[in-house]
Amino acid sequence: MTDPSLRLPAEWEPQAAVLIAWPHAGTDWADRLASVETTYVTLAAAVTRFQRLIIVVGDAGLHAHVQSQLRDAGVDLSKVRFVELPYDDTWLRDSGPITLQGGGDADSQRYFQLTDFRFTGWGGKFGAEQDDALVAGLVDAGVFGHAAHKRIDWALEGGGIESDGEGSVLTTWRCLVQRHPGQSREEMSAILRKSLHADRVLWLDYGYLEGDDTDAHIDTLARFAPGERIVFQACSDVTDPHHDELQRMATELAALRTPDGRPYQLHPLPWPQPILDQGRRLAASYANYLIVNGAVLVPAYGDPADDEAARVIGMAHPGREIVQVPCRPLIWQNGSLHCITMQLPAGIA
């Protein structure tokens, strides 16, 4: 019997820690490992200013290497926990646990369910056997205390859904129909409502980024924010091939209503200039930011729009410090800051 009090918290609710997996020579980062490790060190330093960080490492050698890097960077290692487990790649937003929360307001009163959906390497594009076993490995390592572990044999990635913490889930049709081509929107909505204990599912039909191999994850496009706000990636350049699609997405967002029938307050993000890698356009999105306790970590791409994006995100998340994290190395592998992280709600770890 399902617990009716369980819900998917919003990212801006209190957190226990952020979970990441460190890149190494056995991952797809091998060709540019030094540059991406610089981003990971900067991320670790930023997160540990505000809360704990759990780092998955492949083996004892990588563990020692990462410890040395973080120590040299002045990171407070008392706020870091290492867990040695095998993994295919480092996109823990998609292979990590989607954690439901129930119980009271105090940490000691809360209980948790680690919802472990099937991870298929974004619809079979990449090998994912070790990543699909990651949540179970973290559970066996005792990372999550007494949290329940529920395996669901249905493909879903954490980057594919957004929660307002109050029963609304936002997602994209383009992504989920790729994962489940034989299912209707109504069937998928029912599965999402049941598995995430949600009241309703809001769908976007438009929105994509060139270079994105997630099939339009919502966390690259539009994000819930406190106070019935939505932050979204806009495109003001009429000559850019994204313009029409993102304009249509903006129209869809304007038509969405809160549970009591009001329009959301929309915060459009500026559009960065195209970033190319050997002629391939990379998926640079400012919507791919990470909320932590007391702050928002915002991707920066070395673009003139970086500061304006940080300002817009700060307006949508009042009272939080805004910290820019250089993320240009990340988009070489088609993701950004939110994609490599997974927050854990307060009380679980």
Automatic annotation (TrEMBL):
Cross-referenced InterPro entries: Peptidyl-Arg-deiminase_porph
A GO BP entry: putrescine biosynthetic process
Keywords: Hydrolase
Protein known as: Agmatine deiminase family protein
Highest rank taxon of the organism: Bacteria
GO molecular function: agmatine deiminase activity; protein-arginine deiminase activity
